[in-house]
Specification:
Strands 2-1-6-3-4-5 form a six-stranded mixed sheet. The protein is built from 24 helices and 17 strands. It has three domains: 195 residues, Aldehyde Ferredoxin Oxidoreductase,  A, domain 1 (4-Layer Sandwich), CATH 3.60.9.10; 182 residues, Aldehyde Ferredoxin Oxidoreductase Protein, subunit A, domain 2 (Orthogonal Bundle), CATH 1.10.569.10; 172 residues, Aldehyde Ferredoxin Oxidoreductase Protein, subunit A, domain 3. Helix 2 packs across helix 19 and helix 19 packs across helix 23. Strand 10 and strand 11 form a beta hairpin. It is of the alpha+beta class.
Length: 606
């Protein structure tokens, strides 16, 4: 058997002990790896109702059967845990080289439980696992921590910043200095365990069942990459390519989703970014797309700021969503967010909520420690970001809970402009401009997320779809969700133009399995249903609701001017989606559908 190392490493931080388990290859066949295998482990091993910030929560670094191989974009890995921000399942994906190094060190999965009495770092070199005091690292920002860990030779790292240390619910884990497992608060789980950093070195290779056949398959896929018509744009601009079209289409979040068109949008496009701040590109492990942008601010009050980024989501959430209209200012806020160790989507959503709350009298100068905040003011927004990361005043402490938590604490009608789905701030595509994104956000297995089903270009570019209608969206969203669940379990990059047939071929050649496209997609559906059962078990109210603003507040500008989501239409769309999935009218998977997916043992277990 290839593709998998066959070993999982379990680390108990309370007792500072380790143990080795065999990877269950039957589970690997059914759940693939990364997201899927992590979901199976989390459901089976985490007692129902576990506090996400308790020592008992599992923090897992998971890989897929293609991770660390010769497949293009195979440097991806996944953090799987129970989210402190949503209380639901969390898989947060990251690039860089850490995951490939983990596989080369011999580990399919690293499972971390318990809590150290004092700050600690885990140092892994192949089979050698050591615990070292991290008191001197505690309080450091993320890149500073990564660089400090290089003192004894080059290692791959996963670290937290001040936000993770202070259990901020939107804290991220930073990988290799500038990649991020951003969404859902995995950094807070790491902080709750007093774990500042994991460093890893691997000297082995990933076994392959059919090395020659795998090499032929990956060579064929590489040719597809080289001939793909859109990848030159991806390589030149990275994700910021989408800023201009999304603004032109009228669904770019602006001033806490009050509008979908930003009047200064032309100043924060990919073209402006390349001209003003980008120095050179970069790439994750074994990736020819090379979509990174290494950037620096060359003039103005933030001159000298350096970072990898900004990405599209950051430009949307920390640019237009905050009324920030220059690339230099967005880059500065991005750098502060990265180094404090928070997710840029969630922080942008939280800061937008905070400015609107301040302007409506829900937050006061006293709450802000004597400060004020406003749209388009990077210094005040950066100060509030620092307050959140350190929980240093009332506003910082409240906003550290995320938009949903903050609105529950503040009240005073703030729920009406708290933009999230199931506790996770939604990303940079307002569903009033593409209704399918509303269904995608509402039914996403980790809360508001675009990566489970990004319907935007299909809704806008395919004449068979009306973007201002819910018609045909259940089939579109379900199909994307199942396929992405499988793809994120292999695990490859979201941007990789790889067909289902090629995914299956590489998976089979790597492992010796005999999967078909049909069984591959069924694995994705199996994973989706298991996560649904986990979320229901953990207390999710399965109404799959969307923020009130999406139904109540029409845009006044842009191509989607005057549009809101139709609540009755959305409810009907949900029922059609449930029926398509074989779920009952309340969104609970039926025993019959679970049996078809090989999940009979989980029926009623939610």
């Amino acid at each position: 058997m290839g593709g998998y190392t066959g070993r999982m490493l379990h680390i108990d931080l309370g007792s500072k002990t380790t143990s080795i388990e065999e990877t269950d290859l039957d589970d690997a066949r059914d759940f693939i790896g990364a997201k899927g295998l992590g979901a199976k482990l989390l459901f089976d091993r985490l007692p129902a109702g576990t506090d996400p910030l308790s020592p008992e929560n599992l923090l897992m670094f998971t890989s897929g059967p293609l991770t660390g191989t010769g497949a293009q974009t195979s440097g991806r890995g996944t953090v799987v845990t129970k989210s402190p921000q949503t209380g639901l399942f969390l898989d947060s994906h990251f690039g860089g080289t850490f995951a490939a190094e983990m596989k080369k060190a011999g580990w399919d999965v690293i499972i971390i439980t318990g809590r150290s009495e004092s700050p600690v770092q885990i140092c892994i070199s192949d089979d050698s696992i050591e615990f070292e005091d991290a008191s001197d690292l505690w309080g450091m920002e993320c890149l500073e921590t990564h660089e400090a860990l290089q003192a004894n030779g080059r290692v791959r790292t996963a670290v937290i910043g001040p936000a993770g240390e202070n259990l901020v619910k939107l804290a991220a884990i930073t990988v290799d200095g500038h990649r991020h497992a951003g969404r859902g608060g995995s950094g807070a789980v790491m902080g709750s365990k007093n774990l500042k950093a994991v460093s890893i070195v691997g000297t082995g290779t990933v076994p392959l069942h059919d090395p020659d056949g795998f090499k032929e398959a990956t060579a064929r896929v590489l040719k597809i990459f080289r001939e793909h018509p859109f990848l030159p744009n991806r390589t030149k601009f990275g994700t910021p390519y989408w800023v201009k079209p999304v603004n032109d289409w009228g669904l770019l979040p602006t001033r806490n989703y009050q509008e979908g068109w930003f009047e200064d949008g032309e100043a924060i496009t990919a073209e402006q970014m390349q001209e003003r701040i980008v120095d050179k590109g970069g790439a994750c492990y074994n990736c020819m797309i090379a979509c990174w942008n290494r950037s620096s601010v060359k003039s103005g009050p933030f001159e000298g700021t350096t970072l990898v980024g900004p990405e599209y989501e950051t430009i949307a959430l920390m640019g237009s969503n905050l009324g920030v209209g220059t690339m230099e200012d967005v880059a500065y806020l991005n750098e502060r967010c990265n180094e404090l160790g928070m997710d840029t989507i969630s922080l942008g959503g939280v800061l937008g909520f905070a400015v609107e709350a301040y302007m409506k009298g829900v937050l006061s100068d006293e709450d802000l420690g004597g400060n004020s905040i406003s749209w388009g003011d990077p210094p005040s927004l950066a100060q509030l970001a620092d307050d959140i990361a350190h929980r240093s005043n009332r506003a910082g402490d409240v906003l550290a809970e995320g938009v949903r938590g903050a609105a529950e604490i503040l009240g005073q009608g703030s729920e009406a402009f708290a933009v999230h789905a199931n506790g996770l701030e939604i990303p940079g595509y307002d569903p009033r401009g593409a209704f399918g994104m509303g269904l995608a956000y509402g039914t996403s297995d980790r809360g508001g997320c675009h990566e489970r089903a990004w319907t935007v270009t299909t809704e806008i570019g395919d004449p068979d779809y009306d973007r201002f209608s819910f018609e045909r969206k259940p089939e579109l969203v379900k199909g994307m969700q199942d396929e992405r669940a499988a793809f994120f379990s292999l695990v490859l990059c979201d941007f990789a133009p790889v067909s289902e047939e090629d995914c299956v071929d590489m998976w089979n050649k790597a492992t010796g399995f005999d999967h078909t496209v049909e069984s591959y997609l069924m694995a994705g559906e199996r994973i989706w249903n298991l996560v649904r059962l986990f979320n229901l078990r953990e207390g999710m109210n399965p109404d799959d609701s969307l923020p009130p603003r999406m139904f109540n507040d029409p845009f006044t500008e842009g191509e989607a001017k005057g549009v809101t989501l139709d609540r009755e239409g959305y409810e009907k769309c949900l029922q059609d989606y449930y029926s398509l999935r074989g779920w009952d009218a309340t969104g609970v998977p039926t025993e019959g559908r679970l049996a078809e997916l090989g999940l009979s043992g989980y029926a009623g277990g939610h």
